[in-house]
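Notes to self after the Tuesday call (sharing in case useful).
The group wants a holo model before anyone commits to mutagenesis around the pocket. I volunteered. Ligand is flavin mononucleotide. Logging inputs and output together so the record is complete.
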Amino acid sequence: MQKRRIKDRIFWLGAVDWDRRLFDSLIPLPDGTSYNAYLIEGSEKTVLLDTVDPPMADELMAQLEGVARIDYIISHHAEQDHSGTIPRVLEKYPEARLVSTPKAKELLSDLLQISDASFKTVEDGETLSLGDKTLKFMHTPWVHWPETMVTYLEEDRILFSCDFLGSHIATNELFVTDECRVYEAAKRYFAEIMMPFRSMIQKNLEKLAPLDIEMIAPSHGQIYSRPAFIMDAYHDWVSGAPKNMVVLPYVSMHESTRRMAEHLTAALSEQGVKVELFNLAIADIGKLAMTLVDAGTIVVGTPTVLAGPHPYAAYATFLANALKPRAKLLSIIGSYSWGGKTVEVLAGMIPNLKVEVLDPVLCKGLPTPATFKALDEMAVTIARKHKDLGFA
Ligand SMILES: Cc1cc2nc3c(=O)[nH]c(=O)nc-3n(C[C@H](O)[C@H](O)[C@H](O)COP(=O)(O)O)c2cc1C
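Result:
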């Protein structure tokens, strides 16, 4: 794809990765993604903001063919999907200075072995004049690495936010046209990448609030010409109470835990509690992460396998602990035959979660009427606690 004009002397460059289905060897990408770079031609200086993932470097280099000079390359984030092509750009434009936070300089030096002489580090709030256009750099740490920053182009009121506020979507439409679709993709992205840093995100949102923003141009997905859409969504995801909702990831080899999970789902429905049920043998882990953004309660369903939880249940629990969702309650249900330490192992895997652990419901073999009664009681307890906690 050729470079594309966004506004007067401001262009999108980069690559659309239609086929990519997995990110970080972990995260499913149902809609592919894009690596967005941007070119700004000031009256005196020209800058490139970020680059692309190295496998797509040729596309960026082809777009730069007609660009005679680049004075600055802005690196908002040192992760290789944005920074990995910087060495090639520096080879083509050896006079260009690489602008980053001091922390990003450290990371870029380690990850890409870029020499010290190329760097110009910038402090929080520092500006850089391109002649008739001015860049203002704002340090926004932990969205989602420690070195991240964003750039505000003052005259055009564009915020270049890199990973912050982005979404994984492959499309040839530069601007958001379908907010419902982008909401889903951005929420998935937030859940997988940003959720562990909720409090830092809140601080960064507050820091950006005074800016008069006409457009937000992230480094994945589409450009927002209605910034309030994504800002409001982020406010909702990081602050406020969770929802009256249970996320119930489970795995079952011989039906017992599945019957328990389905019974609990029905009992919670009777109590007016929304349930997101995931069979971990086939679940999209990204979708599970998305539901963790809102869940008031997490219930993990697992049989006992080799004296502990089924590995899929352990994986989901490990993931939930790493993502640090705002759920306030957690419990465990499942079936066993002769014994083990399933509950102890799972309970020991959630040090990051600030949850009250409700009594687990375990049964030997197939669930009995007593098992179902205990699950009914669990549903009543969850519904009551959600109400007391004000989860709507
Ligand atoms: C590979 C394997 C290992 C198991 N290890 C244990 C165990 O260590 N302790 C135990 O109590 N049951 C163990 N079981 C039995 C299951 O926990 C039991 O059959 C349970 O009811 C299965 O639940 P499910 O129907 O939800 O899969 C094991 C079963 C399998 C297939």
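Two things stood out.
Residues 4-238 form a domain with the Metallo-beta-lactamase; Chain A fold (CATH 3.60.15.10).
The chain has a mean pLDDT of 97.
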